[in-house]
Amino acid sequence: MAYAQKDTDHDRLMRLLMQIARDDRDAFRQLYELVAARMFGMCLKLAGQRDLAEEALQDAFVQIWHRASEYHRDRGAPLNWMMTIARYRTLDLMRARKARPTMGDEGLEDLDDGRSGPLESSLRDAGASRLTGCLDELSDVQRDSILLSYYRGFTHEELSQALSSPIGTVKSWIRRGLIALKRCLER
Amino acid sequence: MKKTPERIEALAAEYVLGSLKGPARRRFEQWMMESGRVRQEVWFWEERLSELSRELPEEAPPRSVWQGIERQLWPQQAQAKPTRSGFARWFWPGWSLVATAAVLVLAVVLVQQPRQPDTGQLSGAVVQANLEDPLWLVSESASDRLLKLRSVAATAAATGKDYELWVVPESGQPLSLGVIPAGGVHTVRLSDEARQALSKSRTLAISLEPRGGSPTGAPTGPILHVTKLYSL
């Protein structure tokens, strides 16, 4: 898969981050060109709103410039580290503005692909193949709650609405799902 | 709250997922600062859950994002610094600026548009003092009342901002012609009122506004450019 190839960029990204830590603007520009589209795709999906996604991406890169020297191998792959920065920033902005165009019942129907609930089936299938198949070991509702939180930034309230279940139930699906996921990943 | 391994495990996962919010999230960030064990747990989830984001389609961000990053990190070097004038007062650039515009426009328009010898056709350019190229070229076709802006050296407005185009009448409030993009060719159809005001004053202005344009109907941001058009 193309993604596997992308991961071989690992060393290149690592080198660029080291250069950026020494204030190398040229390296920063190269880094942006390499990963901005990937990061923006994620921000856009999460925010569901271009303005916000653009702002989050901009802020994330400003942070990457300042924090490049903090990166180390324990943080995981360089791309994952950067994606995480962008993801947190997007979530922050979403929460700060309570900006969710898909809030409410009508909005949530847009996400519905009919049979299988408010998560696009393409994402569900693809997501499940990741995490070494461990998502498959979860119940459907556990997996969907986790994927909706991850991909769409759904809050407990929104999940409860989307999955037509009480908040307490949704919370425990997530909690138990994550613990089960961890047990599986550790095996 | 006690930092039991089970609790750290559960909270770290929810922190990374984003479902841990508000005060609980801040409390957990405090834990992260205090404990390497907590950080390790968070990094585990950040790394593993990031795999999920590989499934999302890529999307090229607009050029304005990179420009915004540069502006934020190196403001002293950012090109095209807007001229900040007061909100309320219109300021007029020196005549030399306008003269430069006229020269540029004549050169370009004569080469590119030999057709349309329409009567009363207005042309002009939006220029910036320290730039060689005009930001936008403006041309009007009197027959169908279209005002055309061709972007030459204009750069995108800051994130969350838009450029808005105005007709400045000889007297009275400016009339909005809507927001204009920084790139490509943009066409505006003039209302009777706007056409009339423009044919008398021949003056356009561009202001920097919140995204989507001025919320009040009058310019609220700095006036970046004022341009006088000429009859060809």
UniProtKB/TrEMBL annotation, chain A:
Residues covered by region (Disordered): 104-124
Stated family: Belongs to the sigma-70 factor family. ECF subfamily.
Tagged with keyword Lyase: no
Domain of life of the organism encoding this protein: Bacteria
Keywords, comma-separated and alphabetical: Sigma factor, Transcription, Transcription regulation
Ranges where the RNA polymerase sigma-70 region domain occurs: 31-98
Stretches assigned to the RNA polymerase sigma factor 70 region 4 type domain: 131-181
Stated name of the protein: Sigma-70 family RNA polymerase sigma factor
UniProtKB/TrEMBL annotation, chain B:
Keywords for the protein's UniProt record, in alphabetical order: Membrane, Transmembrane, Transmembrane helix
Pfam families membership: RskA_C
Membrane-spanning residues: 90-111
Domain Anti-sigma K factor RskA C-terminal: 98-223
Signal peptide annotation: none
Name of the protein in its database record: Anti-sigma factor domain-containing protein
